[in-house]
Amino acid sequence: MQRTAIDKSDWLRVGAVGMMWMAIPFTLFALAQRSINSSLAGMLDAGTLITTLIIGVVFFGSPIIRSQIVGVAVGLVGLLVISGPEVSASGTRALGVMLVLAAVVAFGVSGHLAAPLLQNYGVLPVIRGALLAATIVAAPYGVIAGVGSEFDWNSLAACAALGIGGTGFAYVFASALNRRVGSIRASASYYVIPVVSVVMGAVFLDETISAAAVVGTALVLVGAVFATTTVVSEGDELLIAAEAVFE
Known about the structure:
Blueprint: H1 11-32, H2 38-45, H3 48-59, H4 66-89, H5 91-121, H6 123-146, H7 153-181, H8 183-186, H9 192-205, H10 211-227, H11 229-233, H12 241-245
Helix pairs in contact: 1-5, 1-6, 2-5, 2-9, 3-4, 3-5, 4-5, 4-10, 5-6, 5-7
């Protein structure tokens, strides 16, 4: 397992990864889900596939082919179909949608910031540094919010599940995939997020899903297939993510 020390000159970039991949989007999702349900948040999160490609082309010089342009167009239409009814429903729900979309943009930026660091230093050093930076930034908000609150075992268990699973293991394997195949291809893992969100929301939280949201999500995923077309043609890259952790 590679454990390369990060150069001082790259610590600012590592901190930016912590902000854009962890601190900012996690905070935005938490605020957003005070007004929208988890299923809708998961559907909108699939837009990360689209924002990753757009940001890569515009700001990081990533190459793009015609099918990917079509994919971006279809994906953006899908996001409008998902968010349109929610934005017009009420100001509170509209704000929730906007916060999730802002988080999706942050995710799109973070993959490109992280990719060269992961190549140079390996997965664990970068994730460790990014988590440290995110923790330093987010900790004061946790302390402020904790004043006057009461301890609850269920809340602690939920936070542990998020920290160990959704942050710990998920970020290690996502980083390994990013290192192995690049940020745009790695974003293909977001295909499964809407499905998991909808199923878990319906089973555990009794959430209902609008027809427009389902149609919009289908459009986002179809667009994502075109936008990440090189992934489909080059085999199952997700299966080799575990190997990359130990390289």
